[in-house]
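Write out the 3D structure for:
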Amino acid sequence: MAAKIRKGDKVVMLTGRDKGRTGEVFEVRPDAGTALVRGINMVKRHQKQTQAQEGGIISKEAPVQLSNIAYVGKDGKPTRVGFKILADGKKVRIAKRSGAEPASILTVGKRLRECGTFGCVIALSRMQRLVSRTAARLYGRGSPTFVLRMLA
């Protein structure tokens, strides 16, 4: 089954101590049915000191059940996410409240690639991947042409 909540989506908490707070999903765990949302469900953990990391008490996000979060639409209200098959055969996610495809929702089935330097998500067609690879070779990974956020 296709994922209704994905990495990069803006979501709102529906239940719990963080009810009503919004955040961005930065990791989804479909096998466990959970997601990690930036700034939501924060817990304190005791960290042992290592060569790479300092020890002490750190705050980090704990997983949240997918049923307890909802996608935030363009109007800022929680909405359900559905799927729609376009005339050209593409399957896209849509917001049920507005019926439109929000700008942050990407086409299902497109190859997603993550830009390591800036953390931006890029949905690329085959030709766009070729152009971005060439630009990356010529100008480096931080070039404006490579960092563009291309949506389907």
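Residues 103-122, 143-152 have pLDDT under 50 and may be disordered.
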